[in-house]
Model the fold of this input.
Amino acid sequence: MEITVVGAGPAGLLTSHYLNKAGYNVEIIEEHKSVGKPVSCSGLIGRDFFEHFKEFDFKDSIKNRIDGAKIFCGNESFELNRKSVSFVVDRSLFDQSLSRELEVSFGERFQSFDRNKEMISIKTNMRRFNTDLLIGSDGPSSRIRTQEFDYKLRYYKGYQVRIKADLNLDNFVQVYLEKPFFTWIIPEGDGIYRMGTVSDNPKESIRKFIFEKSIKGEVIEVQAGVIPVGRGDVYKDRIFLLGDAACQVKPLSGGGVYYGALASEFLAKSIISGNYIDYPLMCKKLLGKEISRGLFMRKIYENLNENELQNIFDFLRSKKQILDESGSFDQHAKTIFSLIKDPKVIKFAPILLNAYIRSL
Ligand SMILES: Cc1cc2nc3c(=O)[nH]c(=O)nc-3n(C[C@H](O)[C@H](O)[C@H](O)COP(=O)(O)OP(=O)(O)OC[C@H]3O[C@@H](n4cnc5c(N)ncnc54)[C@H](O)[C@@H]3O)c2cc1C
Done:
């Protein structure tokens, strides 16, 4: 059986690795000239990822360990502490760790496909060929998704600078609540910080942030990309969508490496078992709830006014101890829903309801 994987990002590489190991013939097509470049990612990956995907050696890509975060809302802040909650990676080296032993056809851009009962015919900028299964792990602006699937999604623009500065944040991330997401400062190590945000004009938002915070430093790299937030089907008649192409991202933070990686495992298992329908079922069972609750909370978050946001922030600050002990880096919706059990939350019902109504 011939399997074609479009996109050599972490999702496509992981699924190719498992299929290759199981003896399948996998053809990976990548439009860029190498794996991992250009980078459009802050490279913050939770500990659960590394515990789950132990068989890979990520040593070379890990730049720093993160032990918590300082969360800001206006002029107020509080700290969350959790040793080794996440790691800062060099995304380019990280992706390369996943590509060992895989062959990739570089500089080849997927253009379209035709499907009949026997085969799927692929057209790229270089050639036409046939395949039995097609995996679209072609990132946020997936062509395969556009050609075959109907998605309800929104793109968010992200922009980040790597800057050499004297900030002394060591192993703590700073998060400034700014709708629609937040602004971040991530210490990469060696006096280098990743500062980024998501907005309609994130380049300008970061320039303003750096100016307002009087941050002095030398910008050594800029990175930009889009985050797809939404949902839709992940399988139709021998065609699979995976990773960012399938919006397998955490709706509240936009992080997608872990969810895409888990989905890559589900996909490889379902292809190996021959039960292709297991893939959408596993995605729904194991990621669906977190993503749909996250989408719901995103709607509310985006529609809070300043006062309402400050009230929610104060409540979260009062729950610092619970968040320190049981907050999850990768399951935001589960964490927030667990706080909702507190009877005090009832006073936020009108705020949440109003924000939800405004979102309609
Ligand atoms: C500013 C920003 C910060 C982020 N920070 C984090 C973070 O800290 N942690 C986290 O977990 N996630 C983060 N993300 C999200 C993360 O980068 C993605 O979720 C992740 O890269 C998705 O992996 P993927 O393999 O699905 O897609 P991608 O990594 O996008 O890989 C897709 C690949 O497909 C290739 N491709 C696309 N179209 C074609 C085509 N037609 N033909 C051939 N090849 C094609 C691309 O070149 C690319 O190599 C961030 C995103 C942004 C924009």
Summary: The chain has a mean pLDDT of 94. The pocket of flavin-adenine dinucleotide is lined by residues 6-12, 29-32, 40-45, 109-110, 137-139, 143, 158, 160, 196, 225-227, 243-244, 249, 254-258, 260 (CB under 6 Å). The radius of gyration is 21 Å. The longest strand covers residues 217-231.
